[in-house]
Specification:
This protein has four helices and no strands. By secondary structure, the chain is mainly alpha-helical.
């Protein structure tokens, strides 16, 4: 895959080391998080997206709590 020297060389090429230090990588993670969120909302696997499953499971849990309370 990648050797340690290759990874170090790639990381050294990211600008902003003097001003931002380790925080210079935050924009990459911000964009990566936004991309993951967009994929979970828009990309369908079979018939459902991640949020379809999340909403269905949340409503099922709410229904179960109502049954237990009664």
């Amino acid at each position: 895959m990648f050797s340690r020297a290759q990874v170090k060389r790639i990381l050294q090429r990211v600008p902003g080391k003097q001003q931002l230090g380790i925080y210079r990588f935050l924009p990459f993670f911000f964009v990566l998080g936004g991309l993951m969120e967009w994929i979970m909302i828009k990309v369908r696997v079979g018939q459902e997206t991640f949020y379809d499953v999340y909403r269905r499971k949340a409503s099922e849990r709410q229904y179960q709590r109502r049954l237990e309370d009664e």
